[in-house]
């Protein structure tokens, strides 16, 4: 009775147990290790080479021919076997993609070297003299060693009359019985001598062990098979394979690092770092076949998309790199900011190659702009950006900055400038160098530029000029840099064409890169009576024409005042305060529904949208003034600009006194209006900008 009851009970609960186990398996509730352990122990890439190599004789013995196969196998932690790329003929110089594989060091077990040789020649039989070269032959420190029996290996296939010898050094081969006192982990090579009938095959498997990874030199190893012949016949060939132990890593999501090199030291360049793209956005793939970063497995094998290892080879084609917005060519951008990529023998570098995530950058010891904090790829962040292991080296070819001149002052185009030649040497007299030139354009209040006939800055009256310098490095590379020269009060009525209003020449431009974000923005509107014509007066609650505003949320620039998705000119993502997109208000209009719009000019220099014109929302939840209009309650402000802010004796920001670094807290006593901008007067009487992108109210 008891037995029958037990069986009935099981018959009820067994379907429930099966159902629960099925859910666990299907939903992945089972330990995550099962998923990790399913990764193959050996990765041969997207186009594995897993066929033998034909090696042939030469001269009178050209009829000699052997088909040799040399490769590795290993099991992952689940016990699933995988195979490496086969070795190829040609020796050990250089590493070839077809013969290189990656071994997952967290997965690998039962590592085995396989070798076979088949007589494919006309000779029947053919004498053979084959030598398997183990990893410690070429690198005595290799952590991969012989792990088979002290009785020696056991060949299969045709073994009649075969003799086997073992070498520990000096090229002397002894039998297994003669080698019992040797340390078999230090075995260097194994020799097979005999005859092989036409069409017959000799095969051998050699078990290997993997020791600790003491340093990077123990991560890679090579294995070879040499074919010799008898009776003074010439040496045939060798077959070589390569493998690298690696760890699987996540896809690279950080930004490349912009650096300059002084001696052996690399330091980040802040003004370029804000332009640096992420590595993955430039990664070459099926969806991005022209990507600048061609990432391969160690040794050069094409990797499967989604596979990333810490030993990956990354080849960066510099002139294919795209900036953060994915549309602007990075090389074009930096060439117009006075920089080039690293110069070598008068030529700009075309590619950078990196071996292993973080290895190059760690060896380079990249420091943040403070000159003290090292960059640790994958964990270090800068100005909201996570940093990747890929670093790009730049040279500052043209060093020139915005300047201010009093009316009547002399203008020297080469004052406070510096230029490098093709050998990265400073040019002592740029005004006499035929490779250095400049052009001057007059900039009006709306940002329109007009060439100046005599190519000079007129200091007899107020005005703003754009001076573009050019430094010809070679026939294919000319670097440019444009700076603004403000005379007197500049364009008094409205700010000049830079992102900094006229008179504020000490305030550096902040490069703003609009992002491509497909998300839409629902903007509530400020209702006015329905009008479709531009207003010549300032509408109630709107900012005065000439006011500089910036976006605090994601906004769009439109062709017309009635917003339609099809008429979007540009998109500006929500950004950190110092990177918010800026505009100058040039007029007003109303949508068909009566919503007030600002007619604006984009003043985000260094971006693709610079100088574009159109309409943006006037809703103050999305757009506010760039300049403070009130004193802070505690009369404290904090410098937030990376380059700090300058203090001046005059409210028009002339007669510079000093520079306050980022993070400096200052006491202010007065807000002063200057044209359409504002200044803070410090407690000591000096003046600083009240630009919200450069300072913030309170103890920040």
Report how far apart the termini are: 81 Å
Number of strands: 48
Structural class: mainly beta
Using the alpha-carbon principal axes, give the shape: elongated
Fraction of residues in helices? under 10%
- Average pLDDT taken over every residue: 83
Oligomer: single chain
Q: How large is the share of residues in beta strands?
A: 35-45%
Backbone CA Rg: 35 Å
- Major β-sheet annotation: 9 strands, mixed
Determine the number of helices (DSSP H or I, runs of at least 4 residues): 6
Low-confidence stretches: 1-34, 91-96, 358-363, 493-536
What would your notes on this structure say?
The protein is mainly beta and 700 residues long. The chain has six helices and 48 strands. The strands form eleven sheets. Strands 1, 5, 6, 8, 11, 12, 13, 15 and 16 form a nine-stranded mixed sheet that branches. Strand 11 (163-167) and strand 12 (173-174) form a beta hairpin. The longest helix has 26 residues, at 2-27. It is elongated, with a radius of gyration of 35 Å. The N and C termini lie far apart (81 Å). Mean pLDDT is 83; it is low at 1-34, 91-96, 358-363 and 493-536.
């Amino acid at each position: 009775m008891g037995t029958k009851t037990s069986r009935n009970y099981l018959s009820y609960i067994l379907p429930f147990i099966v159902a629960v186990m099925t859910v666990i398996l299907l939903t992945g509730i089972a330990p995550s290790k099962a998923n990790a352990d399913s990764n193959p122990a050996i990765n041969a890439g997207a186009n594995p080479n897993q066929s033998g190599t034909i090696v042939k004789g030469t001269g009178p013995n050209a009829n000699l021919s052997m088909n040799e196969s040399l490769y590795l196998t290993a099991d992952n932690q689940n016990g699933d076997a995988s195979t490496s790329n086969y070795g190829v003929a040609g020796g050990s110089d250089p590493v070839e993609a077809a013969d290189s594989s990656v071994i997952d060091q967290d997965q690998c077990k039962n590592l085995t070297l396989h070798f076979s040789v088949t007589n494919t020649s006309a000779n029947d039989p053919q004498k053979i003299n084959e030598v398997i070269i183990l990893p410690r032959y070429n690198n005595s420190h290799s952590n991969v060693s012989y792990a088979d029996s002290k009785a020696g290996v056991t060949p299969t296939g045709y073994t009649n009359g075969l003799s086997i010898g073992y070498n520990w050094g000096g090229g002397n081969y002894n039998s297994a019985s003669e080698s019992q006192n040797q340390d078999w982990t230090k075995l260097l090579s194994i020799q097979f001598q005999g005859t092989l009938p036409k069409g017959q095959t000799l095969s051998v498997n050699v078990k290997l062990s993997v020791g600790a990874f003491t340093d990077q030199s123990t991560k890679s190893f090579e294995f070879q098979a040499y074919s010799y012949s008898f009776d003074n016949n010439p040496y045939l060939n060798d077959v070589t394979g390569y493998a690298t132990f690696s760890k699987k890593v996540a896809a690279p999501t950080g930004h490349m690092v912009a650096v300059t090199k002084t001696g052996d030291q690399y330091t980040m360049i802040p003004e370029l770092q804000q332009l640096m793209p992420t590595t993955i956005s430039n990664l070459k793939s099926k969806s991005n076949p022209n990507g600048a970063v061609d990432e391969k497995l160690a040794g050069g094998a094409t990797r499967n998309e989604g596979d990333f290892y810490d030993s990956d080879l990354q080849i960066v084609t510099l002139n294919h790199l795209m900036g953060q917005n994915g549309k602007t060519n990075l090389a074009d951008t930096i060439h117009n900011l006075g920089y080039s990529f690293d110069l070598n023998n008068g030529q700009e570098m075309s590619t950078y190659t990196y071996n292993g995530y973080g290895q190059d950058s760690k060896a380079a010891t990249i420091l943040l702009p403070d000159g003290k904090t090292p960059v640790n790829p994958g964990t270090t962040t800068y100005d909201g950006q996570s940093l990747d292991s890929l670093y790009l080296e730049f040279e500052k070819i043209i060093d020139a900055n915005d300047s201010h001149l009093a009316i009547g002052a002399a203008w020297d185009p080469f004052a406070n400038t510096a230029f490098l030649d093709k050998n990265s040497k400073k040019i002592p007299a740029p005004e006499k160098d035929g490779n250095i030139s400049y052009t001057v354009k007059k900039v009006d209040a709306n940002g329109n530029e007009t060439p100046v006939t005599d190519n000079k800055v007129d200091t007899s009256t107020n005005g703003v000029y754009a001076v573009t310098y050019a430094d010809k490095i070679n026939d294919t590379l000319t670097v440019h840099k444009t700076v603004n020269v403000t005379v007197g009060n500049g364009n008094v009525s409205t700010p000049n064409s830079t992102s900094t209003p006229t008179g504020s020449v000490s305030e550096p431009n902040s490069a703003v890169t609009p992002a491509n974000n497909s998300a839409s923005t629902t903007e509530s509107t400020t209702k006015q009576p329905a009008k479709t014509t531009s207003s010549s007066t300032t509408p109630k609650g709107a900012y005065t024409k000439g006011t500089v505003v910036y976006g605090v949320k994601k906004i769009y620039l439109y062709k017309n005042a009635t917003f339609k998705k099809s008429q979007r000119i540009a998109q500006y993502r929500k950004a950190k305060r110092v990177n918010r997109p800026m505009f100058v208000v040039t007029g007003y209009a109303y949508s068909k529904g009566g919503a007030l719009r600002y007619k604006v000019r984009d003043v985000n220099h260094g971006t693709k949208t610079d100088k574009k014109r159109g309409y943006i929302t006037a809703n103050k939840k999305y757009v506010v003034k760039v300049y403070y209009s009130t004193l802070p309650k505690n009369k404290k402000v904090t410098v937030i600009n990376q380059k700090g802010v300058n203090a001046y004796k005059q409210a028009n920001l002339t007669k510079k006194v000093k520079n306050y670094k980022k993070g400096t807290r200052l006491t202010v006593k007065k807000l002063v209006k200057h044209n359409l901008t504002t200044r803070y007067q410090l407690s000591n009487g000096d003046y600083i900008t009240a630009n919200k992108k450069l300072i913030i109210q309170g103890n920040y």
